[in-house]
Automatic annotation (TrEMBL):
Residues 60-220 form the MRH domain. PROSITE patterns: MRH. Signal peptide: none annotated. It is found in: Golgi apparatus membrane. The keyword Transmembrane applies. The chain crosses the membrane at residues 228-251. Keywords: Disulfide bond, Membrane, Signal, Transmembrane, Transmembrane helix, Transport. SUPFAM superfamilies: Mannose 6-phosphate receptor domain. It is a single-pass type I membrane protein. GO terms for cellular component: endosome membrane; Golgi membrane; late endosome. Its main location: Golgi. It comes from the Eukaryota. This is MRH domain-containing protein.
């Protein structure tokens, strides 16, 4: 009876160590992406300045470290998992004449069409991050592609600038403005597909804002944090093994003493 009780105690101790280990691993900070930021702040506000220690050189393209030390990698929305080709996301805007084609960190235009299409104002077709085709069949660049996401407030964004000229002019110098696209990303763990893109607004048909809902926009632990969590779990596992085997040795030692007595 003593043997069974002792083994039960050791088993419960091992389970306890595992539960504690899983708890500490699960408590790593994962930031929320649901804090609202107004469209005005996204369009007009400066990007959030990250600490110098979090250099872009340490982060892959199409990825970013969050202000809470998490990690977001949008590259899964940039290329097709099957063939590695760039993905074009079609977006329809109700009430507007345009059907947009959006790329995420890559151009949505097929490489086979780069040399043959006519882009308004002579913009480089190979670097278009987003575009639409006007009634005359001419392509309108909505901004040059970028692979560097930024935070505006608590909202993750990706901005394409220097597209084709708009019909509006800047009030400061009277120069024509250029097409600009802002992609705002929302974490959605329930999204069945890779992403869903919605047109939010187009200011004077010049600055276009879209919302991208995807599980790829959800923050995970940075690679360094993942490695630290693995080490913590291994140490707790080794401690549990030590409890188990030392308890077994102690039990046998006490059993021998009982036999001698």
């Amino acid at each position: 009876m003593a043997s069974r009780s002792f083994r039960r105690f050791v088993f419960l101790a091992v389970v306890f160590f595992f539960v504690v280990g899983l708890y500490f691993v699960d408590q790593r900070p994962v930031p929320s992406s649901n804090v609202a930021t107004s469209l005005h702040d996204i369009v007009m506000g400066p990007p959030l300045q990250m600490p110098e220690s979090e250099s872009r050189n340490d982060v892959p393209e199409c990825a970013i470290l969050t202000p809470q030390k998490g990690f977001v990698d949008l590259s899964g929305l940039s290329e097709s998992a099957e063939d590695g080709k760039a993905v074009a996301w079609p977006v329809r805007a109700p009430g507007l004449a345009h059907n947009y084609s959006i790329g995420i960190c890559s151009s949505p235009l097929k490489k086979s069409l780069v040399e043959s299409v006519s882009v308004r104002d002579g913009v480089d077709a190979s670097h278009m991050g987003a575009f639409y085709v006007d009634p005359s069949g001419e392509y309108v660049s909505m901004g040059q592609v970028s692979s560097r996401p930024e935070y505006h407030g608590h909202r993750l964004t990706l901005t394409y600038e220097n597209g084709s000229f708009c019909n509006t002019v800047q009030q400061t110098n009277g120069e024509k403005m250029r097409q600009k696209t802002i992609l705002t990303f929302m974490c959605d763990h329930q999204m069945m597909g890779r992403a869903h893109i919605t047109h939010l607004a187009s200011a004077e048909d010049c600055t276009h804002v879209f919302e991208v809902r995807s599980h790829f926009a959800c923050a995970t632990a940075a690679k360094a944090d993942n490695l630290a969590a693995v080490w913590i779990f291994l140490l707790i596992f080794l401690a549990a093994l030590m409890v188990f085997f030392s308890g077994e040795v102690l039990y046998r030692h006490l059993k021998r003493k009982e036999v001698v007595v």
